[in-house]
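Schema walkthrough. Field components (list of strings):
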Amino acid sequence: MLNISIYRYDPHVDSKPYMRDYQVDPDKCEGVMLLDALACIKNTQDATLSYRRSCGEGVCGSDGMNINGKNGLACVTPLKDLAGKKIILRPLPGMPIVRDLVVDLTNFFKQYKRVKPFLKNSGAVPAREHLQSPAEREKLDGLYECILCACCSSACPSFWWNPDKFVGPAAALQAARFIQDSRDDDTANRLEELEDAYSIYRCRSILNCADVCPKGLNPGEAISSIRRNMLDDGV
Amino acid sequence: MVGVATALGKNGLQDWLIQRVSAVIMALYTVTLVACWFVIKDGDIQGWKTLFSTIYMRTFTLLALLALVAHAWIGFWTVSTDYIKDMWMRLTAQVIIYIVIFLYLVWGIQILWGW
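Field assembly_structure (string):
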């Protein structure tokens, strides 16, 4: 039997949040991941439990949550890795709670929008496509794979303290992705937009972001690469 | 871009660079002082006076002092903007700390060049 303690809070009903314990038989779950155990609870024990989910295979980034103190995706967390210990599930830290494990990601996506996560090229539109050499394409590895699950940003103390000014690890990774892209020619403006004391310089390189990223990415290193670009540009 | 009024540098890059360069200067100064401590016998006040009477040591000490001031300014600005959310409390704390840092700088210069 799995003992799962889940953060519950419905702002329309509850005066304050509380933890509720559930017992789940993993053999009765339709799957082997933590997300399957949550589905089992919702389907058989408590239909009021709220959490986000979509693809169920670590691609959409919907089910980011705090699992035994560490952010991660429930859909790629095997139940066997959690066997024998009490499982404590909380919503992603540092973000407003909508209900139970569902957090308000408005500010997270506002910061994402701020870094203009799209290709900007003022040149003539090519007949077929903007070509890249294999070396230029390789620079995007480790940057383009982000699924925007928010595990990194919500594990970052700098993002907790200044969520309105520091873009956070996820948005910084996206900024680096377009700064490194050889097809983008707006690099100078992108760097200028981020050179203030908050936007990326709030990163203190503690690397919680890299520690929790379910895709194995390193936003801290991406922020360092942006700083190197700024140094090249400004010294 | 986010505007700031009480930081030391004009942007994050400048603060970041100042903090790293000042850290290197302070580390080199610390190593130098420890090395001098091994060379000059403990309690030999005349040895220390001779060392600090040289223009090299005075200049290096002044450089380390300025590095410490810059490092402390940026460090406190960062910590205060993290933890003190009320604008007036933050501004008051920053002004007090900056005045204290300035007074320490003046005192340090006085000790270093005043004899």
